[in-house]
Amino acid sequence: MEKEWDVIVLGSGLGGLSAALAFAKKGKRVLVLEKSISPGGCASSFWKKGFLFESGATTLVGFEKGLPLDRLTKEFGLKFPLIPLEKPMFVHMNGSEIERFKDRNLWIKESLRVFGGGLRMKIFWKLCFFVADQLWNLSARYKWFPFRNIGDVWKTLLVFRPSDLLIFLFSFVSVRFVLVCLCLSQNKNWNQFLDEQLLITNQTISRNAPFLMAAAGLTYPNLQNYIVSGGMVELSNTMIQRLKEWDGEFFTKQEVKKITKKSYVNQNESANSQAIGGDGFHDSTQSFYWEVTTKNRDHSVFRAPILVSNLPIWNLAELTDNLPRLNEKTKRMEKGIWGAFTMGIAIKINEKNESSVSECLHHQIHLERALPYGGGTSVFVSLSHPKDPSRSKDQIRILSLSTHIHNPELWVRNKDYPKKKQEIESILLSVLEKRFPWFLRENLQFYHSATPVTWQTWTGRKWGRVGGIPTSYFFNPFRMFSNRSEDPSLLLTGDTVYPGQGIPAVVLGGLNAVDQFYTRKRG
Questions:
Q1: How far apart, in whole angstroms, are the C-alpha atoms of residue 175 and residue 170?
Q2: 3 state DSSP class of 21
Q3: Which residue in 209, 284, 93, 144 sits closest to 474, CA to CA?
Q4: Which of 140, 213, 258, 367 sits most deeply, having the most CB atoms within 10 A of its CB?
């Protein structure tokens, strides 16, 4: 099938869907192409053996005033099925149980109780809160960063505040540097705690994490945390429903095979492209269009003058010959990209244990030793909410486990593959059994696991890489990937481009990409 649209969005992750809604609200006819059978990318859900499991992300924040999800819901009139959590997270390490209180003062007290540090510890967390707050504010205003030309610099100067310079300087120092300055770098347990927390949000440890981005990651439990009733996929389903109300479309089973930029062959087609993509603007890109070819047997060729890629940058670079600079840059960011090992577990909970199970739904468990085959030294565990009828019924609760995997490209389907999976599964089940008295193996109803191989098969991500680019690559923030590619009619979003990582960040990236596009047109 050949059909021309105003905008084609590749991938239905939340960054791509945010961009799709922003274009659709401006009157564009938008098509979203998704490789899988369900939307959401790494923030999705799926049914298996009668149970609804999360595919990846399980935590959700960012609805406070001025934050990206607050903007998303207000601009597009969205209402997500959210359930607020009273307790954001417990961290289990070295026999201690640490509560990550939402209240900032309570969390500082808890941190002092467990790790000590006195006034220096208070200063560290006060600094984290200040920098994180300012970063969200700055990210919303600096829509043209990283700069591509003098016009971007000028637009940024119009919204510049003197305090921005101080915040910007924290991009050039590591968390470790701040800890040394505050004489907090010698406490082994404290450093272990920070490193495992940073791996969740920054994909790197305190020695390598720029303090600016680390501050936002370390303080996300101090925002209001939510569970999505019906699974994380309901975020995407809600957005797609609104997209369709605005004459957009969402096609599944559309794995992209090739992306080519072509010129219209006659003046009628060129005029048509101006009518589609123009909005009264006039530039040379209107005589060209993007042709997207997919592996779908029945509907496989699509055209649009504007393209939005929500694909990981490594995938995109391999699909087109029209982005040589992007291809070159991706080659410099190939090392140290994480994969994940995840598990989904359905278990029956006795009524007498319900209160202890529901006390807190998110747990980070530090392991006594690293998992084999490149596995991490902690595992993140999320439980379904007792008031979620899709995922918690008949005394069944769903658990989602995830841990980092070094060098995901080393995972391949060979004769040793089943053994490796089973070995990690067995270790993680033992960890749960030891940590939670209510976790009894005889009550297990079903469980499954996913490796980097699974992630590559399901999402199409190269080598099964998930979680974005480690922030260690961005001590110089000008090295970040812009939401604009080298071609003005191809926009970038997702967790591998600025601002990257985490649902609030990719939503902000998708919205900013469209804002940038229209500002360039008018400016």
A1: 9
A2: helix
A3: 209
A4: 213
Smallest CA-to-CA distance from 2 within 291, 346, 395, 376 is with: 291
Contact 174, 202 (CB under 8 A): no
Which two structure tokens, joined as six digits, stand for 340? Answer: 């994940």
Output 368-372 pairs: Cβ under 8 A, ≥24 positions apart.
371/341, 371/403, 371/424, 371/427, 371/428, 372/420, 372/423, 372/424, 372/427
> Where are any strands of DSSP class E within 115-247?
226-228
In total, the chain counts a number of residues equal to 523
Residue that has been written with the tokens 């406490």 in this structure: 187
The whole-model pTM stands at 0.93
Ordered per-residue pLDDT tens for the chain, 523 residues: 457 899 999 999 999 999 999 999 999 999 999 999 999 999 999 999 999 999 999 999 999 999 999 999 999 999 999 999 999 999 999 999 999 999 999 999 999 999 999 999 999 999 999 999 999 988 888 888 888 888 888 888 889 888 899 999 999 999 999 999 999 999 999 999 999 999 999 999 999 999 999 999 999 999 999 999 999 999 999 999 999 999 999 999 999 999 999 998 754 554 454 444 444 333 444 689 999 999 998 889 999 999 999 999 999 999 999 999 999 999 999 899 999 999 999 999 988 888 889 999 999 999 999 999 999 999 999 999 999 999 999 899 999 999 999 999 999 999 999 999 999 999 999 999 999 999 999 999 999 999 999 999 988 999 999 989 999 999 988 888 899 999 999 999 999 998 788 999 999 999 999 999 998 765 4
Token reading at 375? 């596995």
Hey, what are 50's tokens? Answer: 């009668």
Query: Other CB atoms closer than 10 Å to residue 115's CB: what's the count?
Result: 17
